[in-house]
């Protein structure tokens, strides 16, 4: 029996899990050391914790960023700059003795939903993971579509400024103006809520509860985020005719607040379609999606 191991590389935590029958059966984690060699050492130690000694295993790793042409490492990871240009896949294979495959973190979450979650309802969908930034993964007929170099699905860096012109166009962390994540990431929604309420300590869950209670200021935060998400989704619809948007990460709990403005905007932008043509739904795998999807890269 060959064990399947998933790795979820995050900016603050490294998570490792052994996966069987669509579930994480053993897991281990540690802080992310922002140094390449030390990170490899920690991952090797965590992998040894979850795999029985002397038994064969494969490793899939979900990593934020853009990969090189051979998908051996990351060439651009804004939140993990110590990984840029490093031989992640061959180094991890060397120290563990396992076959290793890398995938974008949001794409592997989409793969997990396709195998074990929302894919049971929708064979084709776009998954958007919403947290500090916004990532994305594309599933077509049950299969993950990564593009030539693993970059497909970068939903958060579609331009959403068209939904807000003539407003001033803000700059994204990637260095370009008007990206979707400057309007609709969880961190930007929180920032906008604090500005509009004048309350510097308010957080997204409290804003969401106020919006559900009819507070117009709180509701405006989610309406604007929904418009931005709708602008990005409309571009996906025009290019690929995907009709289902699944929201994960921090956005899972606010789907009810952004669903209507997303679909309203998409219908307004995409000729010949009605509200019934589109669905916005919530991802169901939670924090295990990264581990499940990473392990599935070699399943």
Please tell me about this protein's structure.
With 299 residues, the protein is an alpha/beta fold. It has 9 helices and 12 strands. The model has no long low-confidence stretch (mean pLDDT 94). Strand 2 and strand 3 (23-31) form a beta hairpin. Helix content is 36%, strand content 23%. It has 2 domains: 3-104 and 288-296, ATPase, nucleotide binding domain (Nucleotidyltransferase, domain 5); 118-283, Nucleotidyltransferase, domain 5 (2-Layer Sandwich). A 5-stranded mixed β-sheet has the order 3-2-1-4-7. It has a 5-stranded mixed β-sheet with strand order 10-9-8-11-12, with helices on both faces.
Instruction: State the order of secondary-structure elements, H for helix, E for strand.
Output: EEEHEEEHEHEEEHHHHEHEH
Give unreliable regions as ranges. Answer: none
Query: What radius of gyration results from the CA coordinates?
Result: 19 Å
Query: How many domain modules?
Result: 2
Helix content: 25-40%
Amino-to-carboxy terminus distance: 12 Å
Strand proportion, as a percent range, falls in 15-25%
Mean pLDDT equals 94
* CATH architecture level-2 label of the largest domain: 2-Layer Sandwich
Widest β-sheet, arrangement of strands: 3-2-1-4-7
Number of helical segments with 4 or more residues? 9
CATH superfamily of the largest domain: ATPase, nucleotide binding domain
Beta strands, count: 12
- Sheet with the most strands, sense and barrel status: 5 strands, mixed
CATH class of the largest domain: Alpha Beta
What sort of overall outline do the alpha carbons produce when their principal axes are compared? globular
């Amino acid at each position: 029996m060959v064990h399947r191991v998933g790795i979820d590389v995050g900016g603050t935590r490294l998570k490792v899990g052994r996966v069987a029958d669509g579930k994480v059966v053993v897991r281990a984690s540690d802080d992310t050391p922002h140094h390449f060699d030390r990170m490899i050492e920690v991952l090797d130690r965590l992998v040894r914790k979850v795999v029985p000694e002397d038994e064969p295993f494969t490793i899939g790793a979900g990593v934020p960023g853009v990969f090189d042409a051979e998908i051996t490492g990351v060439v651009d990871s804004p939140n993990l700059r110590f990984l840029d240009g490093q031989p992640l896949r061959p180094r991890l294979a060397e120290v563990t003795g396992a076959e290793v495959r890398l995938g974008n973190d949001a794409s592997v979450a989409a793969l997990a939903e396709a195998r074990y979650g929302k894919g049971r309802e929708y064979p084709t969908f776009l998954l958007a993971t919403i947290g500090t930034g916004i990532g994305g993964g594309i599933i077509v007929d049950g299969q993950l579509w990564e593009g030539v170099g693993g970059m497909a699905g970068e939903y958060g860096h579609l331009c959403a400024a068209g939904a807000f012109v003539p407003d001033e166009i803000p700059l994204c962390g990637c260095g370009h103006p008007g990206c979707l994540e400057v309007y609709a990431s969880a961190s930007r929604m929180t920032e906008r809520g604090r500005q509009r309420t004048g309350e510097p300590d308010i957080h997204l869950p409290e804003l969401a509860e106020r919006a559900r209670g009819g507070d117009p200021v709180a509701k405006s935060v989610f309406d604007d985020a929904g418009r931005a998400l709708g602008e990005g989704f409309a571009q996906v619809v025009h290019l690929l005719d995907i009709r289902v948007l699944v929201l994960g990460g921090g956005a899972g709990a606010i789907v009810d607040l952004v669903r209507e403005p997303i679909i309203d905007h998409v219908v307004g932008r995409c000729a010949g379609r009605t509200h019934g043509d589109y669905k916005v739904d919530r991802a169901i795998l939670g924090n295990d999606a990264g581990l499940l999807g990473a392990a599935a890269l070699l399943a």
